Amino acid sequence: MSIFKPLCLGLLAGALALAGCKHSPDATQTSALDVKPEGARLSAADAIRIAKQTAEHQGVALRNYKEPEAHYEFTRKDHSWWIFFDGRVAMPGNHFAVSVDDRTGGTHFIPGR
Question: How crowded is the C-beta side of 110, counted as CA atoms within 13 Å?
Answer without folding.
Answer: 10
